Structure formats: structure tokens, C-alpha cells
């Protein structure tokens, strides 16, 4: 099994065969696949989410901005307890 393979938990990294299937895919990676991508590419998750938050707000994507802001808060709060 390659470290880049998707999980069977959510299938969030599943590559769709056509646009209709693509639009049904979740916008965000599950925690497992996010960690895999972070490990493979070496990026900072908080930095990534802050950039996404700026993008979503700049483009009027309120639901996505709210979700991303909650993830940022969760990660920051989690770091305070450890």
C-alpha cells in the first residue's frame, strides 16, 4: 500500500470519473488523508487553512469560510491543551 493511497473511511481523495461525480466529492480532506498529504508535501496545516480562509472570504464563500475558521479554532485550541 502506498502512503498516498486514499482511505476507505471517507474516500475523500477518490479521483472521480466525471464532473457529476466530482461535484459530489467533499470539499475537504478527511483528517487521515490530510495528515498523509501533510507528511508527503511537508506543509503547515494552520498556514494552509489560513490561506484558504482568506481565499474563501475574498470570494464570498461564507459556508466554506465558516468551516475553515472552525477548523483553525479547533487546531489552535487543541494545541493549548497539549
Describe this structure as you would to a colleague.
With 82 residues, the chain is mainly α. The protein folds into 2 domains: 1-43, no CATH class; 44-82. It contains 4 helices and no strands. Helix 3 (45-58) packs antiparallel against helix 4. It is globular and about 40 Å long. The chain starts with 18 loop residues before the first helix and ends with a helix.
Q: What's the helix and strand layout?
A:
Layout (H helix, E strand, L loop, with lengths): L18 H6 L6 H11 L3 H14 L3 H20 L1
Helix pairs in contact: 3-4
Give the beta-strand count: 0
Residue runs with pLDDT of under 50 for 5 or more positions: none
Number of helices: 4
Main structural class: mainly alpha
Assembly state: single chain
Domains (count): 2
Q: Level of helix content?
A: 55-70%
- Please summarize the sheet with the most strands: none
Overall morphology = globular
* Mean pLDDT rating: 80
SSE order, as H and E? HHHH
Binned strand content: under 5%
Report, as a whole number of angstroms, the end-to-end distance. 32 Å
Task: Compute the CA-based radius of gyration.
Answer: 14 Å
Summary keywords:
82 residues; mainly alpha; 62% helix; 0% strand
Would you summarize the structure shown here?
By secondary structure, the chain is mainly α. Helix content is 62%, strand content 0%.
Amino acid at each position: 500500500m502506498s502512503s498516498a493511497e486514499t482511505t476507505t473511511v471517507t474516500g475523500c481523495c477518490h479521483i472521480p470519473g466525471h464532473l457529476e461525480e466530482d461535484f459530489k466529492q467533499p470539499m475537504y480532506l478527511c483528517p487521515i488523508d490530510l495528515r498523509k498529504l501533510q507528511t508527503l508535501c511537508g506543509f503547515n496545516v494552520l498556514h494552509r487553512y489560513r490561506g484558504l480562509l482568506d481565499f474563501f472570504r475574498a470570494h464570498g464563500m461564507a459556508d466554506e469560510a465558516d468551516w475553515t475558521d472552525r477548523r483553525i479554532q479547533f487546531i489552535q485550541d487543541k494545541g493549548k491543551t497539549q
